[in-house]
Amino acid sequence: MTTRPAAGGRKAEAARNNRTVLNAAREVFFEQGFDAPMSAIAERAGVGMGSLYRRYPSKEVLARHLCTISMEGTLAAAERALAEESSGWSALVRFITESLECGMGALSGFAGSFPVTQAMIDLSEQGANAMQEILTRAAAEGSVRPDLTPGDLVYLLKLLATKTTPDPARTTELRPRYLTIVLDGLRPTPTPLPAPAPTWPEIAARWGPATDLPEDL
């Protein structure tokens, strides 16, 4: 006779399955973009289509949830860096490194692909404020060029998260190399930047206006 798991066990199992789906979706979207079919995500996660759609009724809902998680992770990374690092430079390096780990840049290309919620807009603005605080601290100590903006960081993270080779392991291996090059470029330099920095309204406009959507999950 098969014993059914206790309620707590079922909840833990559901959480594990959800993490598996989210990790699979993140990988598939990174490799194929927003046009990736839900069937590819289900196959990567090892779940049936019915199970996937019960949790995430559409690709938009799934992508929106992933982006929200990424935004929350980015904000948390900025707040940790500000609270725990002793210098603006170390806070900036830690923020960029942890933001890449939580998938911020990898999902940036989704901007404009689906309607966003007001909660996402709010998270974006909070993240911009935290990034500005890191940059202000670093500029005040003279460790970074003073013309950097949060918009610059968003686009740099997107570039760093780009798939550089067909081999995911090799892409992961190369990322620290390009991160080192980028960080060197953020140091103080007399060379003026050739164009105005992207403003935060420009960054936010990529997603479009907030829509009156119910919370997905």
From TrEMBL:
Q: Where is the HTH tetR-type domain?
A: 15-74
- A GO term, aspect molecular function: DNA-binding transcription factor activity
Family matches, as Pfam families: TetR_C_43, TetR_N
Q: Which domain of life is it from?
A: Bacteria
Task: List the keywords (alphabetical).
Answer: DNA-binding, Transcription, Transcription regulation
Task: Identify the InterPro entries for this entry.
Answer: Homeodomain-like_sf, HTH-type_TetR-like_transc_reg, HTH_TetR, Tet_transcr_reg_TetR-rel_C_sf, TetR_SbtR-like_C
Residue ranges of the annotated DNA-binding region, renumbered to this chain: 37-56
Q: What is this protein called?
A: TetR family transcriptional regulator
